[in-house]
Amino acid sequence: xxxxxxxxxxxxxxxxxxxxxxxxxxxxxxxxxxxxxxxxxxxxxxxxxxxxxxxxxxxxxxxxxxxxxxxxxxxxxxxxxxxxxxxxxxxxxxxxxxxxxxxxxxxxxxxxxxxxxxxxxxxxxxxxxxxxxxxxxxxxxxxxxxxxxxxxxxxxxxxxxxxxxxxxxxxxxxxxxxxxxxxxxxxxxxxxxxxxxxxxxxxxxxxxxxxxxxxxxxxxxxxxxxxxxxxxxxxxxxxxxxxxxxxxxxxxxxxxxxxxxxxxxxxxxxxxxxxxxxxxxxxxxxxxxxxxxxxxxxxxxxxxxxxxxxxxxxxxxxxxxxxxxxxxxxxxxxxxxxxxxxxxxxxxxxxxxxxxxxxxxxxxxxxxxxxxxxxxxxxxxxxxxxxxxxxxxxxxxxxxxxxxxxxxxxxxxxxxxxxxxxxxxxxxxxxxxxxxxxxxxxxxxxxxxxxxxxxxxxxxxxxxxxxxxxxxxxxxxxxxxxxxxxxxxxxxxxxxxxxxxxxxxxxxxxxxxxxxxxxxxxxxxxxxxxxxxxxxxxxxxxxxxxxxxxxxxxxxxxxxxxxxxxxxxxxxxxxxxxxxxxxxxxxxxxxxxxxxxxxxxxxxxxxxxxxxxxxxxxxxxxxxxxxxxxxxxxxxxxxxxxxxxxxxxxxxxxxxxxxxxxxxxxxxxxxxxxxxxxxxxxxxxxxxxxxxxxxxxxxxxxxxxxxxxxxxxxxxxxxxxxxxxxxxxxxxxxxxxxxxxxxxxxxxxxxxxxxxxxxxxxxxxxxxxxxxxxxxxxxxxxxxxxxxxxxxxxxxxxxxxxxxxxxxxxxxxxxxxxxxxxxxxxxxxxxxxxxxx
Amino acid sequence: xxxxxxxxxxxxxxxxxxxxxxxxxxxxxxxxxxxxxxxxxxxxxxxxxxxxxxxxxxxxxxxxxxxxxxxxxxxxxxxxxxxxxxxxxxxxxxxxxxxxxxxxxxxxxxxxxxxxxxxxxxxxxxxxxxxxxxxxxxxxxx
Lengths: 837, 142
What we know:
The complex is a heterodimer.
Chain A: H1 3-14, H2 26-63, H3 69-94, H4 99-117, E1 128-130, H5 139-142, H6 144-153, E2 163-166, H7 168-177, H8 180-189, H9 196-212, H10 217-231, E3 239-245, E4 261-265, H11 270-279, H12 284-293, E5 302-308, E6 312-319, E7 329-336, H13 340-344, E8 350-355, E9 362-366, H14 378-395, E10 399-406, E11 411-418, E12 439-440, E13 443-446, E14 449-457, H15 460-463, E15 470-474, H16 482-485, E16 488-493, H17 501-509, E17 513-515, H18 520-523, E18 529-533, E19 538-541, H19 545-548, H20 562-574, H21 595-616, H22 619-622, E20 623-626, E21 633-638, E22 651-652, H23 660-672, H24 685-691, E23 709-715, E24 718-725, E25 728-737, E26 742-750, H25 756-768, E27 772-776, E28 779-786, H26 789-805, H27 809-816, H28 819-836
Chain B: E1 5-9, H1 13-25, E2 29-33, H2 36-45, E3 50-54, H3 62-72, E4 77-82, H4 87-95, E5 100-103, H5 108-141
Parallel strand pairs in B: 1-2, 1-3, 3-4, 4-5
Helix pairs in contact in B: 2-3
């Protein structure tokens, strides 16, 4: 054995348990204590900040609320930075750096950073592609919409306008060169998405950023050259510039009506139109949609389709599987001119329902009120049905098809995409409701029922004030109202149909929705509590409970989303507490698997060090003896006052301590003495408490404690009590954030194998009082976060009571003939104590 | 009389002005700088108690500014405030001596509390140094 090791071993042997710890030279040691106290307070602040951010991440995960990547990035950064601070402060307290711990932290930090950064690769490929060159294998470059359209154009007898696609490789390059992702993330991090006015204003800033960013000259040239070839270079030629979204989640996200389409665009406006369409990726509706679906904007790339304009005589939408009709029918919605007004519900629309099977018999025709003649002939309707079914057959699933018939009678398919969410299956017979509805009629956009107060939106200015859980009543279901869907419980619109974009989004999110409810904005007074029965097409005054029983499974839009997956991966490295066993052998860096473990380890080591150091550096200044009726000696080390303590009294009352935390704990402890039988008949409470601190046991309270002494570490927002009761090492720790009015409590106890019943009882009692429990081997670990200071103090008092009360149960167990009777008895005692207070 | 002085360094003019206006209402003496170099020039001219420093700025970035600032005015406490939350810049900020690393948007109350805590730290450090100095002087004269 090397000489140094032998000397160290000898020195360790000399520090026998219970031996008096030599005091350090008072003045320099006191100065060091002052510095350590400050580091310890800083450590506690960093610990609390990390824990708060961690709790916010955990809460977001548990309640499945919509959350942004900015939220996750900010909270993960907050946790990581504060854990780094905890490590540094612990190093200052220990007077040395723990390089092993720093390496463990560094490894975790790098993995968290990698998760937050993601693995986004730049989109590679051709910048421009003709529609004729495209098929669905190029979806990741052109977007689903354009790839499907191009493929549709290759089917016999299906005609599409000539055009080309500015691919995602080009739009991605535009974003990269202008550093737009970084700038957008900067704005998004500062956006309060819940505040609609902020959402709208930040959305405008982002869109302006994109519209004013320069496009690379070579890309501009490429675009204009291709435009010239497309249109035959005629000055009157016009194109439609359409978005074509790309996303790994396209199979479950439809992006219906989120992005902008620019119509009648000439050569002079082509570049600006492309930027406008790109900017529409950040409209308020697009931002809130991605938020609700847990999608990452950087990974929702966009291609842009440039298609020759069709001089439309009549246009419309074909759903090859009827939205709300029988399963063997299809729907056609149509109106003269272009289809824009149909999906935005700003114009009246005709509706035809046809059989899906040839010869496509018309089963229902409903002309628009202002139609003086049928806008679509039977022959045209049947031709559309044939085209629609051919597309469905080719793509293998129901389609939603936008089409136009030009003035020569030629049919053009303008868009063909997978049909969005169909109406949910509904209970066969809706419950019967007594009483007259306030409104009846319209069409069901999405089934279900919702209850709330009416909020009428006539202008966008009014929309900004839409409260949460309102019944949203609007004149036209415009796509720009989409951000309100995520805060409403139901939607009622005076116009609209099942094909409009807002209805499609309502179905995607399972929001009960009624369209074409005439005069709804007049007849439903603002603030009136109503039940909207979308399935039964009626609105009732007040709450109609039978209707509100769920008959439809609501989708969980966040489930399995990229944002949720990112959160799960990051949380796995941050939150779990695996370092549970306070046994010194396991309480080591090598066992730290998460940032929480590192926090716990640093904190434990810092507390231990503070106890040791406080005692060695002169109790007279830092520590005061508490006057108490409880047996044993009780000392308080005041971390706040240590630096400039002018109070030279040797002992103090508890009332001299300003922190509310020890008061609560102490109150519970003292209350025990009023209980009978509180302690074993064989041992008095005094005898038990005198033994505290004598026995060798738990590391935190082993060596530095003088016989018969128990110590509180106290600051204004922190309290730690480590004692031994009947050979059981017990540690209670509480932190309180007075700004939030919230705090946390941690309780640890270790027991011998002979006394597992005692830990079992403690676990049951703590569980009863709302603590989260974890048991590892012979140790019990319990903790709770409280959002109310009153509850926090009650729980702390409960813990103080239990810490003392539990020790007297040996004899009581025998007397009562069963441990579980004690459990109920102690619960009653505690309830009585809290009630009495 | 102002409680203490704060220098707000941020390339976003609206943020600078709005923050300065709000903090002035709480009796803090505020000055603004649009970038790191201007901030360092101002710190060379006079001392500030606390600097509220943006991380991402054109030209000299926040971390670089922090390092230089701590070299010329080690007693000045620096709070990094960023709209680009990044673990790397956060760790670097703390490593190079920032008092804290905060994320925008930040409500005024917690920001004010953080500034107060930073100022309190600066004050105690200053007192400590002065006490050590006077102890040393006393020892030398005796």
